[in-house]
Amino acid sequence: MTSGEKKPPGSKDKGEPGELALEYLAECERRGAKPNVLLLKRLDDASDAHARGEAIALSCIGSEKETFLHRLRDNDLLALLQSLKNKGARVRHLDLSFHCFGDEIGRIFLDFLSVTQSLETLRLKSNLISERGASKLCDVLANCPSLSLLDLSQNALGREGGKAAAVLIGNLKSLRALDLSDCQLHLEAFVHLTTAVQTDNRSLEILNLANPAITFNCQHSYHVAGCSVPSSIDAQFVNT
To answer: What are phi and psi of 62, to 5 degrees?
Structure first.
């Protein structure tokens, strides 16, 4: 930037924390949450794009070395999403895989998505998301009109979470890819999903159900690999 140029409002000088990073720090302090170092860096990196009015992409994966021992929980997620909401940030891609979210994840996203309609990609792989949490989250995401990719792989969706994902296939016309690989699913939910992709869906291109742990009742669980289904490899459905 030359001496005669003006920087966009909210953009940061070299060495200064960005607007999104500062708001995240303030929100963590208000909630008594410990700021996540990697997330703080990602928000700092995204602050200039936000200042230019651009949609941003955020990735804070719990298996990375900076956050491996400090994975996000519900209160941390709330601090992040509230800080983004406070600044009117338009988030296009969000990857929060390998953290430890609980039953409140749906409610937390409900508040965030009430003012944010820009989300296109949401990755929540291996987050200990429960049946109840997954069910509520899928209900909430049905009102996210731009969402095209959802990754809930390696979570225990059970009966209700899997059934809610099947309903999402029919209701969310923007959804192109749904990854439920390596999930624990009740047999009833598995049937709902395979039925939905063949009957209710008009837009989904990929439903990945590879290597599911199929639960028939509360005492027995079976792993299914290489399912024999039309146009599939390891139960990955490709809609043509």
So the answer is: -65, -20
CA distance 211 to 232: 12
* 223 token code pair: 């792993």
> Nearest to residue 128, comparing CAs of 73, 194, 202?
73
Asked whether residue 57 is domain-assigned, the answer is yes
Which DSSP letter does residue 100 get?
-
**Is the distance from CB of 124 to CB of 155 less than 8 angstroms?**
yes
Q: What is the pTM of this model?
A: 0.85
Give CA–CA dist 229/231, Å, rounded: 6
Domain harbouring 120, CATH code: 3.80.10.10
Q: CB neighbours of 219 closer than 8 A, spacing ≥ 6?
A: none
* Alpha-helix residue ranges (DSSP H) falling in the chain: 19-31, 37-51, 74-86, 105-113, 131-141, 158-171, 187-199
In total, how many domains does the chain have? Answer: 1
Q: Would you call 36 exposed, middle or buried from its count of C-beta atoms within 10 A (0-12, 13-18, 19+)?
A: buried
Residue in the structure block whose two tokens are 């949490």: 133
| Range with lowest mean pLDDT among 104-108, 122-126, 186-190, 196-200 | 196-200
Convert the pLDDT of each residue in 38-64 to its tens digit.
999 999 999 999 999 999 999 999 999
What mean pLDDT value characterizes the chain? 87
- Phi/psi at 228 (5° precision): -90, 95
- Whether 190 maps to a domain, the answer reads no
* pLDDT at res. 116: 85
- In 3D space, the residue among 60, 47, 71, 39 whose CA is nearest the CA of residue 123 turns out to be 60
